Amino acid sequence: MRVGLISKLRLSGQRASAYLLRAMRGGMLPLLLPLLLPLICLSPVQAGDAAVDSRPAMIPQILSEQDATLYQRIFALQHDGKMQAAEKLLQQVDDRRLQGHVLYQRYMHPTAYRSRYRELQAWMSDYSDHPGAYRIYKLAMRRKPDSWQAPVTPQKWRNRAARDENIAQYHSPTQRSAGKQREIRRIRRHIQRLIGRGQPTNALKYLQRKEIDRQLDAVETDLARGEIAKGYFLAGLDAKALQQAELAANRSGNFVPQAHWFAGLAAWRQGDAERAATHFSALADNHLPYASSWDRAAAAYWAARAWLTIGQPQKISHYLTIAAQHPRTLHGILARRQLGQPLAFDWTSSALTQGALHYLQQFPAVDRMIALVQAGQPHRADLEMQQLLGQIDPSDDIRLLALANMLRLPASQLRIGNIAKQQGSYHPAALYPIPTVEPADGFRADPALLYALMRQESKFMSHAKSHRGAHGLMQIMPATASYILKDGSLRRADRYRLLDPVFNVTLGQRYVEYLMAQPGKHSDLFTLAAAYNAGPGNLRRWLKTKQYYDDPLLFIETIPSLETRQFIRRVAANYWIYQDRLGHAQPTLDALAAGGWPTFPDAGAPRRQAQYDSLPGTRPPRDS
C-alpha cells in the first residue's frame, strides 16, 4: 500500500494537499501524515510539477543486481521448458514486479506447460494492465468451465500505430446507397485482380462494359484506367499504357497521380522524352494530397532527367530542387547528392530529464519496462511502452520518446517518432534508431545495410511474424534459414529460434553475404534488395525479361511486384540515411548519382565461401 500511495503522491505538492483534504474527511490522516509531510514541506519550486526538473535523467536500477540476474535465469529456464527450476528461482526474487511477465511466458509456452483456467483467471485479476492480457483472456474464455465466473476483462488501450505518410483517397460526391458503394468496391477489386494476373486487356474490356461504366463517375473510371495503364507498362506494352494513362491524366490528373506517372514512364521508354517530361512535371507540380512525398520526389527527379535529355537545362535545377525537398526518399536523396546538398539531419536524440522521468514513473508500466531491460527482455519492454503509448495523453509522447531513447528500444522509438512526425514534430534519431543487437560473429556487412533492412522488414520488432511466415528482426523465412544453415528443423519445430534477435541478425547478415556471392547481378544495392524481398529466382527472371535498358532507376519501375518496388526504394533510402547517421561514406549513392548502378565497392573482389553450418546465439522465448 505504501508504494502505491507514494507513486500517486509523487506528482506534486498540490496533489498531495488534495489527498490530505480527503484523508482528513475519511479519518485516514494518522496513516497518511508520515507520507504527506515531506511533500507538503517542499519549497515552492520543489512542490511544482516534477517535470520542471530539467537535470539529465539517470535511469534508476529498479531491480537489484541479484534480482536482475535471477529474472534473466528464470526467463531462460522457462524458455527451455524448465518450469520447476524457474519457479524455485522465482521464490528467491525479492522484487516481484515482473511476476506477471514471468507467468505470462509460462502460461503461453507452446509445449512445456498447459495452463489451467484458475491460473488464467488469477492472472487476469492481477495483471489485466499487462501486455498480452487480451491473449490470456481469450485463452481463459476457451478453457472456462460453464459454471465458473468469467475472468476480468483486459484494460483497453488505443493502438496508436502511425503510417509513414497519410495519403488522401478519392471519395465520389455521388450519393449512393450502401449496396451501391459495395458494388463500386467490388468493381475496383476485380479490375485490380485482373491487373495482378497480368491481364490488362481483360481489365479494360471489363471497364468498358456499359453496366460497369455507368456505375462509375469520371474520376473513378480514370482511377481504373490508371491501374490498367500500370498493367500495360509492366507487361512492356508502352503504346497501350500511354494511351490509357493519358486518357486518365488529361481528365483527372489531379486525382489520379499514377496516370501521369505511368504516362511519363511509358513515354520515356518509347524514347519520347518531351512527352515524358510533361507528365512527370505535372505530377511533381501537383500539390493536392493524392500523391505521396515519394511520388512527388520521384516525378520531380524523372522530370529533371527528361528535361536534360531534350536540352532544357534551365528546368533541371527547378525539378531537382523539388525532389530534394523530400530528403527521406530515394529520389530526394539522389537529387540532393547531385545538387551538392548534404542530408543535414539533426541526429540529436530527445534527452530525458529527471523531471520527465519522475512524471512518467507515476505509470507502473514505466518501472516495469526499466526492470525488463535489466532482466534482458527488451522486447517485453517494447510491448509495455507501446501499450502505455495507447493510454497516456498525447502531450506526453515526447517524454515517452526520450525514455525510449535512453532505454534503446528501437521499435518504440520508431513508432513514437512516426506519431510525432504526423503531429509536426520531427525526430530523425527516433525515425532511424540504432538497435543494440549485433551479429554474433560481428559486422561483416555494412551495419547501415542491416539496419536499413531491419527498419523496413520488421520496424525493429524482434518478435514480428508476417502472414507469410517470416520471422524476427530481418523477417527470415524458415525455408530460407533451413537452406542457408542446412538445418531442416528450422522449417518446423525450431523455427521459433528465428525470434532470437542475435540469431536472426546473424543469419540475416549471412543471407546477405550469400546473395552477394551468387553469380550474376546481385552485387548492387537495388538487385540485392530485390533478391532479399522476392527471392533470387524472381530477380533473375526480371533481369532477363524486363525492358530497362541497363538503367537502374528504370529497372525498379519495371518490377511487377509493388511490394518489391517499394521495398527497394525504402531500403535504399534507409541505407543512405543510416550511413549519414553513422558518418560512413556513401559509394553506392555516388555511383548512382554519376549515372551507374549502386554497386557495392568490394563487389569485384573475390569472396570467401561463407560457412553456414551453424550459428551462435541464445534461444528466444517462444511466446510473443
Instruction: Name the CATH superfamily classification of the domain at 178-339.
Output: Tetratricopeptide repeat domain
* Shape, per Cα inertia axes: globular
| CATH topology assignment of the domain at 178-339 | Serine Threonine Protein Phosphatase 5, Tetratricopeptide repeat
Q: How much is the radius of gyration in Å?
A: 28 Å
* Topology, number of strands: 0
Helix content: 55-70%
Poorly predicted runs: 1-25, 29-51, 604-624
Instruction: Determine the structural class based on helices, strands and strand pairing.
Output: mainly alpha
Largest beta-sheet characterization: none
Distance from N terminus to C terminus (CA atoms, Å) equals 32 Å
**What is the CATH architecture term of the domain at 178-339?**
Alpha Horseshoe
Share in β-strands: under 5%
Calculate the mean pLDDT score and round it.
Answer: 88
Task: Write down the CATH class of the domain at 178-339.
Answer: Mainly Alpha
- How many helices in DSSP terms? 33
Describe the structure.
This protein is mostly helical and 624 residues long. Among the domains are: 2-48, no CATH class; 67-143; 178-339, Serine Threonine Protein Phosphatase 5, Tetratricopeptide repeat. The protein is 58% helix and 0% strand. It contains 33 helices and no strands. Helix 16 (273-284) runs antiparallel to helix 17 and helix 18 (316-324) packs across helix 19 (330-339). The longest helix is centred in the C-terminal third of the chain and has 21 residues, at 562-582. The chain is globular, with a radius of gyration of 28 Å. The two termini are 32 Å apart. Mean pLDDT is 88; it is low at 1-25, 29-51 and 604-624.
